[in-house]
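Q: For a teaching session next week I want to show students how multiple molecules come together into a single three-dimensional assembly. I've collected the sequence lines for a complex. Could you give me the predicted C-alpha cells for the whole thing so I can convert them for display?
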Amino acid sequence: MLAHELPRLLFGTPGTPLTLAQHEATFAPSVKVESLFNELAGSGLTGRGGAAFPTARKAELLRDQRGHHKVVVVNAMEGEPVSYKDSTLLSTNPHLVLDGAAILASIIGAKHVIVCVSRDNPTAVGHVQRALDERKRAGSRGPEFELETAPWRYVAGEESALVHWLNDNESLPQYRPQRPNVLKISQHSVLLDNVETCANVGLIGRFGAGWFRALGTRTSPGSILVTITGAVERPKVLEVVPGMTLRTVLSFADADPDPQALLLGGYGGSWLDGAFLDTPYDNESLAPLGASVGAGIVVVLGREGCGVVETQRVVKWMANESARQCGPCAFGLPALSEDLAELSTGSRTSTKALQRLEQRCGVIEGRGACHHPDGVVRLVRSALHVFAEDFMSHARGTPCLGSRAKKYFVAVPQLEHEHELIWE
Amino acid sequence: MGVKRRTGGFYLRVNPILCDGFGHCHELAPELVRMDEWGYPIIDKEPTPLSDLAALESARYAVRGCPRQALRIERVSET
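A: Of course. Below is the structure for the complete assembly, covering every listed component.
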C-alpha cells in the first residue's frame, strides 16, 4: 500500500468485507517493525472515539499496570445516532480492526480481546462474528477474541458505561474521581479503544509510523473517517485527510455549498458558522473556533433550517438518553430542553427562557459522573453563539422563517419512553 | 510538641451518582456548598485552604451528615 494514497481504512467495498486471505494479501507488511510500542508512540495516533487522546499514552498507562490478565476492549458501540463510520469500517475490513486489537494486546500484555458491538446493529455483529470465525479456522495466533453485544444507548459507548456493562450487565457510567483512571473488568485492567483507532493501530503495526505520518498534519496524522449527513446529496462515510478544508470535505459528499452552519463532532459537539468553511478539518484548527473533529460527524444545516429548532430536537433526545444517575444531568438536561422548546416556538416570555438557558448551562457543566451533560452544554453554548441572532428573534416572539418551515436536517431518533429504555 | 503547620488545601467532593439531593450538606456547610434549583449541591472547583479551620470543620460535618455518604474530603498539597 502506498503511503500517500487513500483509502487506507476503507480499502474495499462497504458491505462485502475483505476475507482474511484478501486482507493479508492487500495489507502485506512493508517494514519490519522492531518495537510496536515505539512505532505507536512515533505515529502520534490520537483516539478516534471523540476525545482524541493520544493512543500511545493510554497504552503506556496500561502497559505499566501490574497484573497478568489484562483485557483490550474494542469499542464499536457507535452511540452517536448520526454516525455510521464504525459500522462502515467493520463492514469493509474487520480484520484490520482485529489486527490492531491484537497489536494493542501484545503491547500491554493482554491475552484477551473483547469486541463490543451494539446488538441493535446486527449487520456489524455479523461481520465481526464472521471475521472471528475465519480467524479461528485459519488458526491465527494472538490473543483470544470474544464478541459481546451490548444494548444501544447514547451513553452505553462511554468507556466506563461499557466496562460496567461487561462487568454487571448495566450500561451505566461510573464515577471515577481520580485521573488518570484505569478501568477494570473483574480486577483486570482494561485498555479500551475505538474501532477506528484499532484499525489505525493495525496499519501502524504493518507499515510503521513513518508511513502512517505521510498523510495528515503534524498534530493529527493519518486519515479520519467522517460521516456527512444533513443538507447533502449523498449522505455517506468518507475517509479524509486532516488538514483538508471543510469545503473540500463537504464537496466529496455533494453538500450544500453555502450552508448556514455545521454540526461538528456529534450530538455533544458544537455548531460552527457556515462562514468558516475554509477552516482546515483538524482539531488544532477547529479548537480556536470552539469546535472539534470529535467522532467525525458533520451535519450540514441548510439555509432553510433553524438552528434553534435543531438544537432543541437534539437536546430533547439527549435529555431522554441521560442515564438519570446524577441530579444535574437527570433534571438539568430536561430543563435545558424545555427552555429551548419555549424559545423555538417563541412567545412573549421567551426572553426569560433565554436568560435561564444561559444561566443553567453554567450550573450543569462539569457536575455529572460522565461527560454526557457537558456535551449537551457545549452544544447549547455553541448554538447560542452561532445562532445568536435567531435566538434573539425567537426570544422577541418572532421565530425565524426556518422554524416555521418544519424542515429538519439533523436526524434524531424517535424518543423512547423513559420506561422503555433498555440498559442491560 | 509544636504548632502543627497547616499548609495546602482541601476539596469537598461529591459523588454525583450517589447523591440524591437530600440537601444536608448545604445546611451543614453553607460556606462551601450552594444548592442548584433542583436541590443538588454545587461545590467550588477551587480548593479551600486548610488554614480555614471553620470551613474544614463544617466540611467534616457535611461528610458525616450526608445520608447517602456521597461526600469526601480530598487534601491537596501546596503547589
